[in-house]
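User:
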Amino acid sequence: MTPSSLPSAVAQPAQVVVSTVNPLLGAWTTPDGVPPYDLIRPEDYEPAFETALVAARADYQKIANNPAAPTFANTIEALERAARPLDRVSSTFFNVASADATPAIQKVEENVTPKLTRLSNETLLDQNLYARVDRLWKARETLALGPEQTRLLEETHKRFARAGAALSPDARTRVAAINEEMANLSVRFGQNLLADQKASDVVLGAAEVAGLPEDQRAAAATAGKAAGLDGQFLISATRSAVEPFLTAAPNRAAREKVWRAFVMRGDNSNANDNNAIIAKLAALRAERAKLLGAVSHAAFQLDDTMAKTPAAASDLLMTVFRPALVRADEELRDIRAVAARDGVAKVEPWDWRYYAEQVRKARFALDEQALKQYFPLEGMVAALFETTNRLYGVTLHERTDVPVYAQGVRVWEVREADGRKIGLFYADWFARPTKSPGAWMNSLRNQNSLLGELPVVVNNQNITPPASGQLALISIDEAGTLFHEFGHALHGLLSNVRYPSLSGTTVSRDFVEFPAQVYEHWVTQPEILRKHARNAAGEPIPEPMLQAALKARTFNQGYLTVQQLSSAILDMRLHELPGVPADFDARAWEAAELKALGVPDAIGMRHRLAHFSHIFDGGYSASYYAYTWAEVMDADGFEAFKEAGNPYDPALAAKLRREVLERGNTRDPAVSYTAFRGRMPTADALLRNRGLS
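Assistant: Predicted structure:
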């Protein structure tokens, strides 16, 4: 291990070569046929989209207007083969649009989004095409299809029906208009948030960062210098920078400044304010749901999930929220007692993490900053890869010949135990000013045997880059996120299906989080941490510190659970509204709902509506509950390994891979979970895991 955030072997973006040929079009001669990011310029994207859109329309029209009677091959399977150039250009572009959204890329996104939405509307509302799909669906019992073919037919028909293909002409026209307007609004929401996040970076003086741990202070100084602010300290308005600062900074006024900058993103009554977009999106979603025969957007969204109804999802959320609120009140009493010693009469939200850390130090003899010294990113990556090897026999081998889209992106080839190539894994772990907030997995190419394609997947986080010559140190929670996102990556990489539309992570929102969340359990396995949790000198984590960290895993869970679930509950309640008035005030509605829930002011939401990109720019509208729904499964699922007495039990790992990771969306998720566990779960294990039972 070397004291640097990026080892010398990391793949670097090659120098751009100017060419008159658009590198996005035609055959890609890159290693493994990956996007030629070393050749692509921002101005290449729009012409490539235009060409690919024309080809996609021709593909779909050929299927729709085929004079032959519809068959599975000439209609359903043909749809799977259609528009491949567009899929390739889209995945290449939107990967960059999330991770490195320069002004030029944002302009392309603004221009192409309505065109892509228009094509989707034209295709899914095409009456000739729908008639062919519908005819096959109605005759499905007579077609002698295999299980995966039957699933594909059912899912394809559902996609057309849920898009409104069976509606009247006037209703179809209105749904199409709503879809296009919503797509444009979602782009604006995300771009506003990114712009406001950049504008919300906090510049502090030396006195304001006094008492900060050296790694945080050095990183803030480096960020300040990069921004042309020599001698000053910059705290970016990202979770990975803000939460460690709020935990460690003794200066209360500085904590308040940083906290306000972070929580007010998108809600600053400026050109980047998202409140009007929230009102419009909520109104359009409610209107579309009614056109499609649902009582609310939430009802429409959940009809195609494991939960099935908003009531079922809300019941689970409240089952966990109520004991969490009780626990949070107990935690607040402890925090008040410690804060009072500093003369703090009222605990504010910028105080909670700082004084909670003082309570934790006293209760567990555990210092978060001391613990971080044993959690270098490189060590946790090694822990991640060893865990993957022990569970699935999979190995990862770093590649430096693969073109990447930004500085610091790394690429690994993923192989089976016998050396067969599975696919490629791109890792983009560090924050940059042009990156969207949060952490996510996306695919550059979905596994499928129909076209003989191996998967190419990407993981993103927003870890604060370290100062030059320093290790990138992460918290145990960030290590959990590292494992979480790689759980998604494995869901894509280990997929073993025939059709692209059923591959990997194409399952419902409340099941897709299960493979990711269950993987988080392995980050705290003692034998892995004893080996890989090492400081800069290579010394292993002291055993008393390791045991204290494991004991403290349920500490502050009241606070964390209330924060997360209040966001999920408000997401569901907003989207259960049957209609949203034109003068809807998102800020006032949020405040009133939090008060009605009894959320203490000192806690608040994890994601305020104005920067809740999951639900307004990320496909999780009325679906943020999915993390809790999946947590029920992940807690119960990992209990199987506990019951086996071996967290790496080979038979169970093989079963998890075979029944869940390889299956994609080839069958109902409940069938997949039951095939792995033998039954459906209850919330008991979740409550135990969070220390709330």
